[in-house]
Amino acid sequence: MPVPSPANGIIARASIVRNVTTVRAFQSSTGSRSIMPDAENPAPKESEPIDEPKVATGLTAEEFHERADHYLNELVQRLEEAQEKDPGIEVDYSAGVLEVTLQENTFVLNKQPPNKQIWLSSPLSGPKRFDWVVSQEGMDFKEGGGVGDWIYLRDGSSLTEILRKELGVDVSVDDQVPR
């Protein structure tokens, strides 16, 4: 048997295996440790809600009327457009009270200036009181970049979304009105 040497092209397997076994194994763990000495395994941080409306945005009486009138006028315009396509929709808007009849259901929306709210009486979702809320405003967002909408503070629902679902009317958010 020839003697193993690099010159004759025969290399012993034992030398190759020996070199492979000298490679170190790497291990990692996913356990998190606290920088505090008394906390071995800290609990994961609770996720924070992104931007749930909790408080109505402060408005002067003039600002309230400007936003509410703009919203209700926009809604009346969209409902009248829908009425042209479907004569089964009845729309009556007078003295700040909007009454919409659709398939034997009557919806009533009106301004409540003392509370600075828009109230909705719906046969589908019940009565709700909506406050003007500007969201996406704070240190995590661009200054002046907040978006306002009429929000029911008890459950966070949007008047715009409720009207879209129940009346099939899309009312854009009042972002044309200065904040």
Fold and architecture overview:
It is a single chain. By secondary structure, the protein is α+β, with helices and mostly antiparallel strands. Helices cover 24% and strands 25% of the residues. The protein has a domain of 107 residues: Frataxin/CyaY (Metal Transport, Frataxin, Chain A). Strands 1-2-3-4-5-6-7 form a seven-stranded antiparallel beta sheet. The radius of gyration is 33 Å and the shape is elongated. The C terminus is likely disordered.
Brief write-up:
24% of the residues lie in helices and 25% in strands. With 179 residues, it is an alpha+beta fold. A 7-stranded antiparallel β-sheet has the order 1-2-3-4-5-6-7.
The H-and-E topology, N to C, reads as HHEEEEEEEH
What is the CATH topology descriptor of the domain at 61-167? Metal Transport, Frataxin, Chain A
CATH architecture of the domain at 61-167: 2-Layer Sandwich
CATH superfamily of the domain at 61-167: Frataxin/CyaY
> What integer is the average pLDDT?
77
Main location: mitochondrion
Catalytic activity: 4 Fe(2+) + O2 + 4 H(+) = 4 Fe(3+) + 2 H2O
Family: Belongs to the frataxin family.
Keywords: Ion transport, Iron, Iron storage, Iron transport, Mitochondrion, Oxidoreductase, Transit peptide, Transport
